[in-house]
From TrEMBL:
InterPro entries: DUF1328. HAMAP family: UPF0391. One of its GO terms (cellular component) is plasma membrane. The chain crosses the membrane at residues 7-27, 33-51. NCBIfam families: PRK13682.1-1, PRK13682.1-3, PRK13682.1-4. Keywords: Cell membrane, Membrane, Transmembrane, Transmembrane helix. This is Small integral membrane protein.
Amino acid sequence: MLRWIVIFLVIALIAAVLGFGGIAAGAAGIAKIIFYIFLVLLVISLIMHLVRGR
């Protein structure tokens, strides 16, 4: 999932440099959404690890 965040971030940066505002905003928005999903899954995974124990 982090790979997708990096890909959309690069697309957003390239589009911003070239002046395509809509494309840059869209790619940055998608990258943000994927990042937040990753964070939620990370927190759930950590909680499940603590609940289960070793």
